[in-house]
Write a structure and sequence with these properties.
Structural class: alpha/beta
Number of helices: 2
Order of helices and strands: EHEHE
Strand order of the largest sheet: 1-2-3
Distance between the termini: 37 Å
Strand content: 5-15%
Helix content: 25-40%
Number of strands: 3
Shape: globular
Length: 99
């Protein structure tokens, strides 16, 4: 028996682009996330593993609901579950007890 997983990391999705980006940063992130789902479907993957740092801004108030809605809808279209790990930027002050 063989199975596959798709691993992604450091998405850093944000409705506010980094200073150095001149493109539609949010749409670029969403396009890449769609490609992850398409890859998982093509491979018959049993899971997508997110290795952390999914959101660029950690406080929920800095992430607009419209973006969160798009992220949820995108993941609902994945052919398999997504399993998330905590990334180094997800841990405030480097303290896992604050997660």
């Amino acid at each position: 028996m063989s199975w596959s997983v798709v691993i992604r990391t450091d998405v850093h999705i944000s409705a506010t682009p980094p200073v150095s980006r001149r493109d539609d940063y949010l749409e670029a992130c969403l396009t890449k996330l769609r490609a992850v789902g398409e890859t998982a479907r093509a491979l018959g993957s049993v899971a997508v593993i997110d290795n952390g740092d999914f959101f660029h801004h950690k406080p929920w108030r800095k992430n607009p609901y419209s973006m969160l809605y798009q992220v949820v809808q995108l993941h609902k279209a994945y052919p398999c579950p997504t399993i998330a790990n905590v990334g180094n930027h997800d841990v405030p002050y480097g303290r896992s007890d604050l997660v």
